[in-house]
Amino acid sequence: MSLYEDILTKFISVGLQRIIVERLIEEYKEIRKESLLSDAEEVALHSGRFSDLILALVMNYVSGTDINIDEIHTEELINSLEQMPKNNSSESILTLAIPRVVKSIHSIRNKKDVAHVKTVDPDFYDIYYCESACNWLFSQIVNLIYGADIDESGRIINSLCEKRIPWIEKFDDGSYLLLIRDMNIIDKSLVVLYKFYPKRKNIDEILSILDYGNRKYLSSQLEKLKENKEIHINETGIVLTALGLRKAEVLLTSINYFI
Fold it and tell me: Of 68, 66, 62, 67, whose CA–CA distance to 81 is shortest?
């Protein structure tokens, strides 16, 4: 069973409407795909739809009533949720924090006229914020509604936030392998670091994923990325900078390595 099938099954088992969960997952997949393609308008558009469905799901969960997702009135749902009593931290997140994040997503979408006339192109930081905000929304729903224990919930949230690159395969022993062959070692390293962003990876982990044995040469190439301000290195490992993220996204998009 895939991650999304697992979420769908679990959410339905606690009484949530199937159609809300199905559409929510569909929009989330679109956000992830368009983010990798660096299509800011599509990311903002799908993030707006996703956040509306999050509101519908929360209202369905806390009220027990069915929601017509073809007639979602964002402001009405936000006002209704914010007016509900908040007796604990979980209720505060569901009926206050989540609606406020939804507001912020809609503000970005609306200020760029994404759903209407195209006057200003949304920029990279709007993509980054919208995707991160939607990751956060989904993670809170999983954490508070999913019903899993802490370890299971954490596994699902980490999987949701992980960059989707099908050319890095994960095996049953937990190891990873980059399947791309016709690419130089610097670009391969960027792809690996992009996959696991914002987690840091040390050089031995990168060597293993690349199935590459020349540690000295890889170190020298990573130093070039550091000099170009495309990676940050400290004692805990290596992570992409904003410049490195953009370079990796352009690279992946140009060679059609995306889903």
Answer: 62
89-119 b/e with 16+ CB inside 10 Å = b? Answer: eeeebbbeebbebbeebbebbeebebeeeee
What tokens does 190 get? 């960027």
Residues 31 and 156 in one domain: yes
Answer yes or no: do 181 and 150 share one domain: no
Owner of token pair 């609306």: 110
Quote the domain boundaries for residue 33. Answer: 3-161
- Do 95 and 66 belong to one domain? yes
For the chain, the domain total comes to: 2
133 & 78 share domain: yes
Task: Please state at what angle helix 18-36 crosses helix 242-254, rounded to 10 degrees.
Answer: 100
The alpha-helical segments, DSSP class H, found in the chain are 3-13, 18-36, 40-63, 74-82, 89-92, 98-111, 124-145, 150-161, 185-196, 203-210, 215-227, 242-254
**Residue 117: pLDDT over 60:** no
Residues 152 and 237 in one domain: no
Q: Quick one: which of 198, 188, 129, 128 has its CA closest to 162?
A: 198
d(CA 90, CA 199): 27
Average pLDDT score, the chain: 85
- 224 vs 82, 96, 156, CA distance in Å? 50, 46, 35
Domain boundary among the residues 134, 161, 188 is at 161
Give per-residue pLDDT as tens, 91-110.
999 999 999 999 999 988 77
pTM higher than 0.70 for the full model?
no
Residue 172 tokens, joined: 């049953």
Task: Name the DSSP class of 201.
Answer: B
Q: Are residues 144 and 207 in the same domain?
A: no
